[in-house]
Amino acid sequence: MAPAARTEPLSRHALAFVLAGGRGSRLLELTDRRAKPAVYFGGKSRIIDFALSNAVNSGIRRIAVATQYKAHSLIRHLQNGWNFFRPERNESFDILPASQRVSETMWYVGTADAVYQNIDILETYNTKYIVVLAGDHIYKMDYELMLQQHVDQRADVTVGCLETPRAESSGFGIIHINEDETIRDFIEKPADPPPIPGKPDMSLASMGIYVFDAKFLFEELKRDAADPKSNHDFGRDIIPHIVKNGRAVAHQFTRSCVRAGDDPRSYWRDVGTVDAYWAANLDLTDVVPELDLYDRSWPIWTYSEITPPAKFVHVDEGRRGEATCSLVSGGCIVSGASVQRSLLFTGAHLHSYAKVQNAVLLPYVNVARHARLTNVVVDRGVQIPEGLVVGEDPEFDAKRFRTTENGVTLITQPMIDGLNS
């Protein structure tokens, strides 16, 4: 039977619940002081801004964000950049830190528990659908299309999924589907991910995006909370239980991905390692990047500091302020320095004769004269000393900084401070 015609978007009746409590330990020192969703990305944004922007651009006007690990930076960003919701327009934006609301000895013990502990708050909004989102991936997606499939196929849960190389899929929940897109098996992080039928080198991986009818989800969470053997996790417990006992449907990312113009590619990145983070940021310097940050029809909302324009000064031979194949944010000053294929976040300052190449400089990095930085990620506010050379001697770099298998060097202020100790 064909679905009934709709008079208004389903997103009007949905709440987005963003899971943003994870550390992201594979990002090493980048998450020493901030949770992974709060890590900077793309020149002026944070990673969490992508999931939140997708929700807003999809028409969802009720959002809740669950925080836990070192949440101050994240909460401050949310308060500064996401404070435009108005209750009188049936909009809301809740920040839900782990606060021992259910038990004085329990923080959030799993992704499902993070929602369960806030059921009383969520019920007050009387929304019909809950869209559960991971707050630590980079992508553009129209959740309205996923909501429509959920309703049309009368699913108990609809799981967002995408094709990934089988060799790289062991960190995901892997999905087996029938021809009608119902899920017949869900395996959380298998050592040997099963292939997609007909595509032996690919697996169908969960994106950590789930759509539920709200009442059904609350009942499932209460059932799960009463199970002492449960991990209280969506991927390990909730989704496999529904696959066996209910109706679980897969929503393929290709159906709702928001693409750049006529680009057929579907962009999604888990920037969970320093190498992946560095590469995804520098991909934005391509002539036509897969991720379009200039698309005004699907903007990435964030907190925008009031900054002056970027500035380039000095034109002497060997001391020319210039940047090629690079993104340079507001408040940056390139003073007689050379920037090649790099991304400079807000307020970076490069002094005379400095050279940076393949570099990701987070906000307010200061690069002193004659420094040379290649293949680096530099944390916020780091003061690079005069004449420092990184990226030309891997063995020497590894003794002073954090280096990756792919030759990327991560630099933080404590590492710089340790150079003279």
From TrEMBL:
Glucose-1-phosphate adenylyltransferase/Bifunctional protein GlmU-like C-terminal hexapeptide domain boundaries: 308-411
One Pfam match: Hexapep_GlmU
Keywords of the record: ATP-binding, Carbohydrate metabolism, Glycogen biosynthesis, Glycogen metabolism, Nucleotide-binding, Nucleotidyltransferase, Transferase
Keyword field contains ATP-binding: yes
Known EC number: 2.7.7.27
Pathway connected to this protein: Glycan biosynthesis; glycogen biosynthesis
Keyword Glycoprotein: no
Entry binding sites for alpha-D-glucose 1-phosphate: Y108, G173, E188, K189, S206
Protein's UniProt name: Glucose-1-phosphate adenylyltransferase
Role this protein plays: Involved in the biosynthesis of ADP-glucose, a building block required for the elongation reactions to produce glycogen. Catalyzes the reaction between ATP and alpha-D-glucose 1-phosphate (G1P) to produce pyrophosphate and ADP-Glc.
PANTHER family: GLUCOSE-1-PHOSPHATE ADENYLYLTRANSFERASE, GLUCOSE-1-PHOSPHATE ADENYLYLTRANSFERASE-RELATED
Alphabetical list of Gene3D superfamilies matching this protein: Hexapeptide repeat proteins, Spore Coat Polysaccharide Biosynthesis Protein SpsA, Chain A
Subunit structure: Homotetramer.
Gene of this entry: glgC
Domain annotation Nucleotidyl transferase: ranges: 16-285
Family affiliation: Belongs to the bacterial/plant glucose-1-phosphate adenylyltransferase family.
Residues the UniProt record annotates as site (Could play a key role in the communication between the regulatory and the substrate sites): Q68, W107
GO biological process terms on file: glycogen biosynthetic process
